[in-house]
Amino acid sequence: MEPTGEATPDLFRVVKFEWVPNGEAIRKVDWGDEGEFQFHTSGLWAHWQSGVITDRQGTLFVTDQDISGAGTESELIYIDMDIGEEIKRANLDEW
Predict the structure, then answer these.
(1) Domains in the chain: how many in total?
(2) What distances in angstroms separate CA 82 from CA 10, 25, 59, one per listed residue?
(3) Which domain holds residue 33?
(4) Cα separation of 93 and 66, whole Å?
């Protein structure tokens, strides 16, 4: 999985690939919504968001935060690694 796509203001995309040794990776279009999990960010640009990490037990984690100083949004988003759907969001504004 990796963040990808055009530098679109306030849109973060995650896609899944099947890696092929010594070949071209195959994008998994049956994952998420037509091959993507995406969410609108609270910040001005999605490329300010952190990367995708995993617990290696089936969950991906991405963040939505505003590092510009203009906002106070801060969320941790849990994504099901197998199907590409959001599990839940943890609001970290107060933390």
Answers:
(1) 1
(2) 25, 17, 8
(3) 2-91
(4) 10
